[in-house]
Amino acid sequence: MKQSSSSNWKLAAGVGAILLFAAGAYAINAARLLRASQENADRKVRIANEQALPQLDGGKLKATLVEVTYAPGAGSKPHSHPCPVIGYVVSGELRTQVKGGSEATYKAGESFYEPPNGVHLVSANASKTEPAKLLAIFVCDHEAELSTPVNAEMQKGN
User: Fold this and answer.
1) Is the pTM for the entire model greater than 0.70?
2) Mind listing the pLDDT tens digit for each residue in 2-38?
3) Which of 30, 93, 97, 132 has the greatest CB tally within 10 Å of its CB?
């Protein structure tokens, strides 16, 4: 038996409404579960970083987690990253500065964001006696070296 286009439209609208209702119920339950887990005395949940990202090609996205350990007093030479980076200090203290911004020191448990292609002028352990460990999360939509050195000309004009 053939249905009229009006019947098809009503069926599609009904299915859409059911799916919308189910998605809303799921979102409400997910929010309740998150709140409940945050209130649990034996576990602490916090958002360490939330960052809007530049427009990326969603069909080619790849996240890479890199662990960097700086010896006491050690640091990196100036460099750049082709993709957005979220950094999280696991232990110790890290000094960092991206061209155009001021230098900042991040302690264990703190995080920061670096935009793509920013010139990373300072990335160093803030301590002369203790190591520092950083987790860097790169979100890329193209194949590239995750870190590239920059020349002296690119470092100018902070």
Assistant:
1) no
2) 545 444 444 433 434 343 444 444 445 555 556 655 5
3) 132
